[in-house]
Amino acid sequence: MYYKKKNFFNKYVIMGITAVILIAIIGIVVVLINSARISQEKEKKTTVDVKPEPVLTLEKSTEEPNQTSVKITATATVADEEGINTITDPEGNEKPGNKIEYTVTKNGDYTFSTYAKNGKFVEKKITINNIKERTADEPYIPEGFKHLEGTVVEGYVIVDQNQNEFVWVPVPSGQLSSDNIQNTKYNDRSTVANELQNSVAKYKGFYIGRYEGSQATLQSTNKSVLLTRKGMIPWTNIDYETASRVALEMYKDLKYKDVKTSLMSGFAWYTTLSWIDQRVPLFSSSTDRGNYSGQVYPTGTFKSDFVNNIWDLAGNVREWTTEQYVRTDTSQEDQRVLRGGSASVPNTPIKSTVQPVSSKDTTWGLRPVLYKEN
To answer: For residue 151, what are the contacts with CB-CB under 8 A and spacing of at least 6?
Structure first.
């Protein structure tokens, strides 16, 4: 018997397989198209989000050594049409535009930053190391002053146009010191005391009045002003607030330029005595140097109290300083420190005495310091 062979792959099966294949191909094509579209959208989005960062260029005015100052020019650019918004200098001053100049007077790292108008930000640092470092052996002479006599070792004296004299106190470390620095009952961190310390850190020294402060009257204003001259009766019977004020106003009254004056701080007093002790051992603890006669004499009278070209640190009058005695009872009057001995009290130069700020005495006076603005 003959049987007809059955064809498994009849046309219906073939059509079904073909349909499946076509559907698969269509699916693959759709997936590929969608993937391409998504990829293009991502690429487009990425392209939109990418904005150019600004470029900040910092240039020194010179590379030559031993400069007193160096100018830094900061220039910002950005590769778009919007441009630069601001540049910020190392002090935090934000300035509009794409270029600024900034002058420095000491070595160190200086950081600038810039914002582009597209919102992008960048900062950059430059190191300055070609500014001449000051030493304590190189006193500055303020405008209107001149060197009168002496060396830094024995006492470098300058004088102004009105015969006021000051002596350079060298501080090689740039750091003032104090005998009360560990004593929490004393505080000498006033604004003027900090200004003096900052100046000393930079210039490695300061000037102390060669003589105890004396009083004069300006004819133009009838105002009492502070002097530091030889042969004058010391300004006494003065309370702390008045002493502090006239010392602060001295540089304005006498029209000094690029320097300030203030009352002696406890730090300045102690640092001065430490310097003197190196050349005149035990001066700060002596009790036989000053005028303890019971009578206040004109400045520059007692030669025994003349060291490192400075007069009357040991006696004649005790001197107000900015140093504060910290009281636990804040309802009581503020107290400040007087230093040294006087005509009536034979104290050592280092001796400190605490008195209320409103107190005054015929043997209490003051002495100014002079320092360059930082």
So the answer is: none
Distance CA 367, CA 356 (A): 18
Cα 144 to Cα 372: distance, rounded to the nearest angstrom? 13
Residues of CATH 3.90.1580 domain(s) within the chain? 146-372
CATH placement of domain 55-128? 2.60.40.10
DSSP label at residue 255: T
- Could you list the beta-strand ranges (E) of 93-184: 94-96, 99-104, 108-116, 121-128, 146-149, 156-159, 165-170
pLDDT, tens only, 30-43? 666 766 676 666 66
Asked if 142 and 251 touch (Cβ cutoff 8 Å), the reply is: no
Question: What single DSSP character describes residue 249?
Answer: H
Phi, psi (deg, nearest 5) at residue 251: -65, -30
DSSP per-residue letters across 197-230: HHHHHHHSEEEEESS--EEEEETTTTEEEEE--T
* Residues of each domain in the chain carrying CATH 2.60.40.10: 55-128
**pLDDT tens figures, 137-146:** 999 999 999 9
**CATH 3.90.1580, domain 146-372, yes or no:** yes
